[in-house]
Amino acid sequence: MSNPPLVSVIIPCYNDKDYIKQAVESILNQTFQNFEIIIIDDGSDIETKLILSNIYHAKIKLITQKNRGLSTARNVGIKNSNGVYFLTLDSDDIFEPSFLEKAVEILNSVKIVGFVSCYVNCFIQINRPFFKYKPEGGDIFNFLFKNNAVGNSLYRKKCWEEVQGYDENMKFGYEDWEFHIAILKNGWKSYVIKEYLFNYRRKPNSMLSLANKNFEEQNIGFVMHKHEDIYVNKFNETIDYLLNLSIKHKNNEIKLSNSKEYKLGKIILFPFKSFRKLLKKIT
Questions:
Q1: Concatenated DSSP letters for 205-267?
Q2: Do residues 145 and 174 touch, judged by C-beta distance below 8 A?
Q3: pLDDT per position as a tens digit, 253-279
Q4: Which of 40, 67, 121, 176 has the fewest CB atoms nearer than 10 Å to its CB?
Q5: pTM to 2 decimal places
């Protein structure tokens, strides 16, 4: 590739001392080499800071800040970047060596594409994926009810500028989904490389796991209110989506109430509940 564009790789890091080196090495080992790496230490613990202080490379710049969350960390990194494209990478994940080369070629040749994603291997132990994910990409209507691309993707910096960056009000996950919707509303499209070039590390207390468990409805509501013009335009589809979401949660409640663990818990707690009722009568 003659005169390759500069790519800025943005890696927010919060207490990922065990994995940050692997994430960085996955970029240093790319077949496409015209990049800079910007690591944002988002208020990490002492152990992680020590690891970061020992990562030396001419292409790496480290920015240290108090903990301000993923969206802010990414925005800070991108503001301090020099590339026309930027790649987001979480500090515990890994790209395959050919991703940048293939993704850059797509952005160079297909002008309507705003960002490039790929298929995903989800793993707990490296080289032993337990789940594979195939996002579809596409236009805005492919993203209304599902984030059809990976949050770790290659973007045109122009797209980030148009939407004024990641929404820093989204502190409990789903910021990638909202960011994609904001970009695609402006007429851009998303392209997915049909190869497993990204490796997502599944951790019990990852932001995605916590967001799905504790903040799903809150995040969906935030996105729909912010982009209500599109959801109003797709009113019937939106109602169907919300009804299906409600049915899913209801079915989960039924499964929980019928589980052995739930029934055992009720048996164990029964004497305490009875005793509490007796105390209330006495007092």
A1: T-HHHHHHHHSHHHHHHHHHHHTHHHHHHTHHHHHHHHHHHHHHHHHHHHHHHTSHHHHHHHH
A2: no
A3: 666 566 665 455 555 555 545 545 545
A4: 67
A5: 0.85
